[in-house]
Amino acid sequence: MSFTGSVFTDLLAQSAEQEEALSPYVVGVAVLVLFVLLLMGLFAFGKGREHS
Q1: R_g of the chain, CA atoms, integer Å
Q2: CA 20 → CA 11, 15, 23, 36, 41, distances in Å?
Q3: Percent helix, strand and coil across the chain, each rounded to 5?
Q4: How much is the pTM?
């Protein structure tokens, strides 16, 4: 492997270490908000409809 190749792989490894993963709590809150909005939409849609 050449010197420039090893420098390039070192830079890639350092940039990969600095990336932060998306927090599971952020994903959970986003999904919860989505489901609550869908539930509110369902209630709003069914509010004015007659029961059969």
Answers
A1: 24
A2: 16, 10, 9, 28, 34
A3: 75, 0, 25
A4: 0.54
